[in-house]
DNA sequence: AATGAATGAGTGTTCATTCAT
DNA sequence: TATGAATGAACACTCATTCAT
């Protein structure tokens, strides 16, 4: 109504109650997924939100769409953290480490979240794919800085590090919550278990 | 009834039936999990095996018990591989690397297998817990050798490496199948992304 | 607003918009019913037409109303065919046969169309009832000619023949599409399966 | 155990309560379909029968399977009627007529029944397909008799007549219940509307 | 010891219709 | 007048687990 940009077509006001509904559903979903993990019942969310299943479905046609919306709402946090890291880091290696830490926290928002995120990495159709792609790009930026600086291995790719943060989140699952692991997945991801590099001609990967 | 071997007591029917049933169920389960992942329907397995659901349940009271039996059947392979590594390795680092590779393959036997394995790591009640524990112990042995040799970081624990192999298997999931990752999870696990060690007083872990 | 034609009263917006909307909905509905049969989703039609569900509902309060409008748009064709038959037929029997053929084609416009048409035959409230009634009347006219000519049985009524064409369309459903039926429903409707007339005092109808 | 034929495997007694359950479900389904037509809710049937949805589904995996079972229960009636017709008819034409009348009644057992029956005529997978096929065969037999006798047109096939009875049932749908049609679909099927045969070289079918 | 019937809540999804805006 | 969000019951179908036989 006021200084609306030209990008939106007629830009009908999204009908205040619809927006309120949507927001409420998101609140409830956040709580429900927090309690029951990302596989929690969608029907239960609708019920808890006091809306019909159809309403939930209209706003978020798939579980992935709902998750994507939930994560979008957290995008601000992650962006803020990224900026804080950019301005506050003394070297690129620490910046990259900080960013990976942020990603790991982000992927740990709900129990089981890493699973659909990983799936989205190879399913372009998923609404989560875009989400992932954006963060992979950011990871690539931090990584490039570190590689320029000489503090990150040249052959590593942002995509790999992103996947590693998902795996780290996954490993953290409720199972390990109680165990304080002095050398965690993330440690390994940074420095590995070996004290020396493998011979150049040997296969480097356990996976082959 | 007719040509009964002498080994069985005077029991009416040799328990060979039950044993054959059990073995057949395992064969079928292996195939079914191979096709549908570890969340495949137990009912379907019973049906494919031509037994009642109750029979399946009697032999393997939980999905975990069935998985544990399936993995037990593969224990021989892994033991053989362990021995081959022990006798064939020139240094402890390569031996450890080889063992982790073997574990990663083992945990990739079925789609979704890493999930219950991770869960079993902190649930002592699970029939899979024992399975895991055995391999963790072996990992500890290989690791201790490497640490003695000075080729593995002192603060790393076998438990952590075992979990890392599960995470690596998990990351391999269909998602990455097509992507040839020049620096895979396993690479990262061995050497990390950093070229240098972090300062001694800095927090080393992304997870904290 | 700008070049408003003189025909419309001082109404704010020419109802041309509404008319165009209506026409567009009809176009889309024709295509959608063509693809998904007459039970296709009305919501989907509204979406494909780019209008709200309420708008569709305003123009066509029921599925029957929408179908009736769709068929009304085809009325011209059928009228033209009727005239062609009237002028081009040498005898009343062939004219009637031609008309029934036209009706059968008409009732086969969409998958499942015969169903609501039959329902409309006894539900005067339906918007399709009028449509049907008109064609029944025409059928009566052709039939009367044939009866006068002596080439149609006296006790047959237009209503019955109309229903028979619906049944023929119904029988044509995908089921028989592949089967070339040497003696089709329509053949039976014209000449029956019997070579001779049943005795006058015998019950003639299978239905009683 | 006793003189059990070799066809059934171990032929475990179907567990009396299961059989009772099955029968009860059939009773309830019959009533429910009678009230709501063949599209009535399966869930509702389960609820009315006091069993879980899974139980219904175990006995009758699809709606068609349930209908087939329902019709199988009526097979006795139809067989009895067939025998009565065979022994009681003076000529093959009347026998065929009687059989078609029986079929029409049979296909009118529930509202909407003709629809899945027609579908089954071209879908071999359907459990109803067998049902239909059996009655088509019987129709062929009656028809052959009539054709030998010279009282049925040579080019007609049992399959066509069976389909015509379905169409007749369909036309009878609630819609026409009130209307007493002096020349019904069935009349038309027997003798057609024409008093004379179409010219031999002319296309005989309205459908072409 | 084995069977397989029963359970029944749960899954995601659809849709005609109403109504707040 | 038109919109499209909301409704919410209904749909077919699944499955791990229990238990009567």
Write down the Rg of chain A.
Answer: 20 Å
CATH topology of the largest domain in chain A: Tetracycline Repressor, domain 2
Provide the structure class of chain A: mainly alpha
DSSP strand count of chain A: 0
Beta content of chain A: under 5%
Assigned CATH class of the largest domain in chain A:
Mainly Alpha
Helical stretch count of chain A? 10
- Which pair of chains forms the biggest interface, and how many residues does each contribute? C-D, 63 and 62 residues
Q: What would you say the CATH architecture of the largest domain in chain A is?
A: Orthogonal Bundle
Average pLDDT for all residues of chain A: 81
Low-confidence stretches of chain A: 1-13, 198-208
Alpha-carbon distance between the two ends of chain A: 59 Å
Assembly of the depicted chains: homotetramer
Q: What about the largest sheet of chain A?
A: none
Count of discrete domains of chain A: 2
Name the helix and strand elements of chain A from N-terminus to C-terminus, one letter apiece: HHHHHHHHHH
Shape of chain A: elongated
**Fraction of residues in H or I helices of chain A:** 55-70%
Organism (chains A, B, C, D): Sanguibacter keddieii (strain ATCC 51767 / DSM 10542 / NCFB 3025 / ST-74)
GO molecular function (chains A, B, C, D): DNA-binding transcription factor activity; transcription cis-regulatory region binding
Keywords (chains A, B, C, D): DNA-binding, Transcription, Transcription regulation
Domain HTH tetR-type (chains A, B, C, D): 19-78
């Amino acid at each position: 109504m006021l200084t609306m940009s030209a990008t939106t077509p007629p830009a009908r006001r999204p009908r205040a109650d619809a927006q309120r509904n949507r927001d409420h559903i998101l609140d409830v979903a956040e709580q429900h997924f927090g309690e029951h993990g990302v596989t929690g019942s969608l029907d239960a969310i609708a019920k808890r939100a006091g809306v019909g299943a159809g309403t939930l479905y209209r706003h978020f046609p798939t579980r992935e769409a709902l998750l994507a919306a939930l994560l979008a709402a957290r995008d601000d946090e992650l962006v803020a953290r990224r900026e804080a890291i950019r301005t506050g880091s003394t070297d690129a290696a620490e910046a990259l480490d900080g960013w990976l830490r942020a990603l790991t926290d982000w992927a740990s928002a709900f129990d089981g979240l890493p699973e659909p995120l990983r799936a989205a990495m190879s399913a372009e159709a998923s609404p989560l794919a875009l989400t992932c792609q954006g963060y992979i790009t950011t990871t690539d930026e931090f990584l490039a800085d570190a590689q320029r600086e000489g503090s990150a291995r040249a052959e590593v790719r942002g995509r790999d590090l992103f996947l590693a943060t998902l795996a780290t989140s996954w490993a953290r699952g409720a199972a390990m919550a109680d165990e304080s692991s002095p050398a965690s997945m993330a440690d390994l991801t940074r420095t590995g278990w070996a004290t020396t590099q493998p011979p150049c001609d040997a296969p480097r990967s356990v996976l082959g």
